[in-house]
Design a protein that fits this description.
mainly alpha, two-stranded parallel sheet, 43% helix, two-stranded antiparallel sheet, 89 residues, single chain
């Protein structure tokens, strides 16, 4: 798993809002290492409004969600397209 600090430099030139494909393409153009590209490719195919949305969606080492935050997302139907690694078993 990559860290936020490893992904962040490859998002500086992305023109937000951006689709997942555009973000991955920009990271490839900037020479991102394979583990960063893999994290970005694992994101859901939606529009991302800013770097923070990308960092939350990409497979990066971040703080775990609390049970309350997970419950709120489960009730919010606009967040149903969740990356597979974020789904509970």
């Amino acid at each position: 798993m990559v860290t936020r600090d490893e992904v962040l430099p490859y998002l500086n030139t992305v023109d937000f809002p951006a689709m997942k494909e555009d973000i991955v393409r920009e990271a490839e153009k900037l020479g991102a290492p394979e583990q960063v590209l893999k994290a970005l490719r694992g994101m859901p195919p939606v529009d991302y409004r800013n770097k923070n949305e990308v960092l939350r969606s990409a497979k990066t080492e971040i703080a775990e969600e609390t049970d309350a935050e997970k419950a709120v997302k489960a009730r919010d139907h606009k967040h149903q397209r969740v990356a597979e690694y974020l789904r509970s078993s």
